[in-house]
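Limitations
The structure tokens in this dataset are predictions for the assembled complex, not deposited experimental models. Users should treat interface geometry with appropriate caution, especially where small molecules or nucleic acid strands are included. An illustrative entry is reproduced here so readers can see what is and is not provided.
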Amino acid sequence: MRAARLPLLALAVAAGTAAPRVAGAAAGSIRGRVEVTREPPAPQARPSIGELSMPPPRDLPNRRRSVVYLEAAPQGAFEEHEGRAIMDQRHETFVPYVLAVTVGTTVDFTNSDRTYHNVFSLSKPRRFDLGRYATGQSKSVRFDRPGVVRVFCEIHSHMSAFILVFAHRFFATTDADGRYRIDNVPPGAYTIVAWNDGEARETRTVRMGEDGGVMEQDFVVR
Amino acid sequence: MRAAALLATALSAIAAAAGAQPSVEPRRFALGVELSAAVGPEDRGFFNYTSYEDSAQRLARLSLTAEWHLAERVALLGEVRDENLGTPRVYALYARVRPWRDRAFDVQAGLIPPVFGAFSRRRYGGDNPLIGYPLAYQYLTSVRSDAVPGTESDLLVTRGAGWRVRYPFGWGNPDPEPGLPLVNALRWDTGVQAHIGSGRFEASAALTQGTLSSPRVHDDNGGKQLSARVAWKPVVGLILGASGARGEYLSRDVIGALPPERRGHDAQQAWGVDLEYSRDRWILRSEAIWSRWQTPMLERSLGALGFTAEGRCKVLPGLYAAARLDHLGFTHIDGPAGRVSWDAPVWRTEGGLGYVPVRHVLVKVAYQHNWRDGGRVRERALLTSQLVVWF
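Predicted assembly:
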């Protein structure tokens, strides 16, 4: 699976491979737009065959949100960031559906629903199970290894989300219009990846000039 | 299968009529597939048998479930199962309609989930933390729906042998057949039910063809069962439920064979209370069911009390431990050797581990110990493993 490239990225950085150096000429920015033309399938719960009533209404996750990142980061770009981020559970949906953080970030899984949720992940970069907790409560997980972490709720089979853990800061999550911006990119050649809904959808090689500036890179996810 | 097809056609017509109202959500179709296989030693004491042939400890099952939202407030649901490479059977097929958008009131009609109790609506393999079923929902007693014992002695000769019951001087079908559990968790009943509430208080009632112990697609005695359940959720994570049911369980054939003065005493009546409390990594559940069968040729009704308590604790991500304590006791009748319970009391303990290596795979290993105060085999321990795969 192409999504498995994220852990490889961390190895490349740690080993100091032929990636460009941070120091030197002016840094630039990469910006653009990721247009998702495909219609993401709605998340499917298992048939509620044993229920006595209609399932409660729930929100649909924003599966058009993408993450754009540099596959090989500049040497020395590795940094551990002691930050915090929030992934809420609202109307039986993880919000946001995609969360991109750096290694060392602690994610708070808040529960804004009136029912129990039980967040868990069996992904190799971070296996955890937060147990059941009620509305207004929050439990936290610190992510210390880069990679893709798939998050689920044990009680609600239709709930899922992604957390992308990077070993560097050269990534950006698209906004509501699909726009992104990665700043402070040193001169050099990079592989830039547009990731959407579980897969690296498009990969291309770009070169940031010595004088920095702003580079436009648009993607279309079909 | 022909009956199922007719039922499906009827339900489609109901749903199509209701579906004429405007829809604000896209139509959607959800399909679920679950494969489970339990491998264990032969259960020589028939403690886990759900019929004369099938044991829950040696069961391969392929289950297809579907939910089709024809409109915003109308859905069709169904399940087809194949067990031990037998003939696939329809286990559920019903329409779900919410007549008013802003009211938590739902009607379901067809081959419907039971409203009584809590366990029998746990349809998926992962919903049962262990491999065995609670005794009240599975263990075959020596009561039958197609035959009645002629005397107390007639009943007592089958004591502790509910998987193959024959009354030497009974009425009705003379061939040996399996007896009835208190509540049959493996088959659903046909009828209509209503459910109200979605918050702290919920209530359900159903009118069905069969009874708790003998659910039916076709009516076989002209009687109907009325069952109901109320549930209260005082705080998140705590559910308290109470259930009741009453219906005629004896078939038309056996009733017709009885002396006229003995007819009309053929009801199963049951009461149940259930509790579930979950928090953090724990789930605790307990259920008690009292069932009473009227038996036309005997002086006293036959009562049975099933009690079960189970707990599940997650010890690591993807790994849990679970345990269940079970008992099934019976009322006493006068026999040749004095007062004795009409069937042999049973105790069961079961403990096990469940491991989820990836999200759609569950592996269970469970050790079960059974004791029975009667019958040919009085004690049996079983070590069983089960694989459940779903998507």
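Some entries come with short summary sentences. For this one: Residues 5-15 of chain A form the longest helix (11 residues).
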